[in-house]
Each structure stands twice: as structure tokens, then as C-alpha cells.
Amino acid sequence: MMRTVAAVAVAVLLAAAVAAEASELKVGYYDKSCRGVENVVKWHVARAIKANRKSGAALVRLIFHDCFVRGCDASVLLDPTPENPDTEKTAPINIGLAAFDLLDDIKSAVEDRCPGVVSCADILIFAARDAASLLSNGHVHFDALAGRLDGMHSHAAEAQQDLPDSTFTIAELIQNFKRKNFTIEELVILSGAHAVGVGHCSSLRARLTAPADQILPAYRGLLAGKCAKGPDPIVPNNIRDEDAGAVAAAIPGFLPKLRKVKDFLDNSYYHNNLARIVTFNSDWQLLTEKEARGHVHEYADNGTLWDEDFSDSLVKLSKLPMPHGSKGEIRKMCRFVNHH
Ligand code: HEM
């Protein structure tokens, strides 16, 4: 009897493991099981972005920080618990991650509609897709694949190991992306996400003392002034989202380029980069290698091409799988694994 129970338990576990690996991602995955779910997600994302466009930038960053660590399995959403106090979101590399409350609200609305059907991992991808689309006025757009399961593991050390640091050299950035099967071109394309959002001064410390051939001295002065104003303030990633007063004082020639609508997702990152006006060392590093530099010029010259290639690269990111043999589930709440 015991042997039969054990055999059945093993079979069930194996089935769950296989399900996690073999689940085929597809467009319209929830058409039958949770009709309209993508509209529910979009409604919430649109409302949040209307209230504050920063939540859109946070979602665009989350797709990267989830998918580069253990694949797109919502491991980045797990809160620390007494059993696992060091989840990914506690890692220093994940400083400033946001939009967790928004994803909780979306999950709760989706659970009301179809309990236990839609994974947090898929909700995150839908939400990031909608955010990228809304922030770009629809220029970045793609059909989102779905059918992922939520992972059961989340470790700060893995986030620290797998995600690139803003102090990385170009060689380190290329190597980091290569480990996930991403090319130099895709590194350049995806870095364009820094057209939106903010960064902490601690993430750009090295830029405050970088030489003039790496950063426009007037911009360096602007950043230094802002960063002196508190223990670790935040600054816009894109100078076009800076406050007019600071730009008028430091780089008056840039005033006409300031944007009325902040956090607009476009190819302005590449123009800023060529002008040595970008926040992170990792951004500037793209100019130090021939192929990467060529792509920076290419996307500065062709915004439509960037919109398309960025969309394709997000789809590629969204396909990163969980580690071989991992088990998955549909979480009830995105912050916690279900009880077993
Ligand atoms: C290439 C290597 C990358 C490095 C080194 C890097 C580094 C950073 C850092 C240090 C921050 C600021 C964190 C803080 O201080 O609060 C940041 C913000 C951001 N990153 Fe990246 N990043 C990289 C690639 C990407 C990619 C691939 C995406 C998305 C496709 C992305 C999207 C964003 C967004 C949208 C923000 C702003 C987030 C917000 O305002 O909430 N980054 N990144």
C-alpha cells in the first residue's frame, strides 16, 4: 500500500515537473480558460500609467529582471519569508524595483474572474507588454506568448549573479548577455529601455567622476548637483525628462529637447548616448566596442527600426525558460508560493 502511494506521489511530482518544462508558450493561451484576461491586465496598466507613468517604466524593467533570473517565472515577485529571507527582490542589484502593488491588484482582479488559472509570470509579461506599448504610443507592440508557470524558488544570490551591474565593462556586458543567448545587437537594443524611468545616484556614482570623453561635463555637473541633495536621491534616466531649471542652469542648449510627456519610450536613448549624456557607466560602455557602437548609431538614425527590434527582443526575453527540471504552479498570490 505504502509503495503504491509513494509511486503515485512520485508520478504526480514527475507530471508537475514535466508540465513545467514542456508547457508550450502560445499567443491566446487563455482564450478558453480565462477569456478576456489580457483586457483585464491592460485596463489596470492603462489606469496606473495614466495616474503615474513611472509605473510603466517599472514594469518594463521587471520583465528583464524576472526573465534573466531563473527564466520568466515571477521569481522576482516573491516576498522574503522567515523560511526564505533572501528572495531576489532583496538583492542590491534589484534596487528600485517597483510596481509590485500594481501586479497584486491585477492578480486579484484576474483571480476573481478565473481562480487558479492565470500565472503571475504570464500576468507580468502581459503587463510589461502593455506598459511598453502605452509608453511608446503603440510603437512598441507585440503579441504576448503565455502558458508559463510560477516558480517556487527565488534567491538574491542568483539575481546578483545573473543580472548585469551598471559598473560593468562592455566585455562584461557582452558576456552577461551571451550567457542567456543574447547578442551584442540585442544588448544595445534592450539598453534602449533606459529612455524611461529613473535611477538611484548610488547606481551612477562612477559617472560623477568620469572623464570628459565619457560624460559631457555639464551633464556630470547636473548629476553631481542633484546627487548631493540627499543620501541616495533618484534622477531621470533620460535627460529629456529632467526639470527645466536644472537643464537651463547646466546645459541651456538642451532645453528645446526636453519632453512635455515624460517617460516616453523611444530611441532618444541613442541620441543621448552619442552626446555622452546617459546615466549609467553600462550605457556609455556601448560606445567602446565597434559592433555595439555601430548599433547605437543605427538606432539613433532609425527610430522605427528600434521600435520593431525592441518589440522582438522583449518577445525573446519573454521566452527564457525556467531551469531544466524545475517545478511550477499557478500561485494564488504573486508574493508567495502556494502551501504544499
Ligand atoms: C544592459 C544592462 C543593464 C544594466 C547594467 C541596467 C542597469 C540599470 C540600473 C542600475 C537602473 C537603476 C536602478 C536604480 O538605481 O533604481 C536601471 C533602471 C531601469 N532599467 Fe536597466 N539595466 C540594464 C538593462 C535593462 C534592460 C534590458 C531593460 C528592459 C528591457 C532595462 C530597463 C530599465 C528601466 C525601465 C529602468 C527604470 C526603472 C524605473 O524607473 O522604475 N534595463 N537599469
TrEMBL record:
The active site is at H65. GO terms for biological process: hydrogen peroxide catabolic process; response to oxidative stress; response to stress. The record marks R61 as: Transition state stabilizer. Its cofactor is Ca(2+); heme b. GO terms for molecular function: heme binding; lactoperoxidase activity; metal ion binding; peroxidase activity. Ca(2+) 2 binds at D243, D266. The keyword Glycosyltransferase does not apply. It comes from the Eukaryota. Keywords: Calcium, Disulfide bond, Glycoprotein, Heme, Hydrogen peroxide, Iron, Metal-binding, Oxidoreductase, Peroxidase, Pyrrolidone carboxylic acid, Secreted, Signal. Ca(2+) 1 binds at D66, V69, G71, D73, S75, E88. Disulfide bonds join C34-C114, C67-C72, C120-C334, C201-C227. Residues 1-22 form the signal peptide. Removal of H(2)O(2), oxidation of toxic reductants, biosynthesis and degradation of lignin, suberization, auxin catabolism, response to environmental stresses such as wounding, pathogen attack and oxidative stress. These functions might be dependent on each isozyme/isoform in each plant tissue. Belongs to the peroxidase family. Ascorbate peroxidase subfamily. This is Peroxidase.
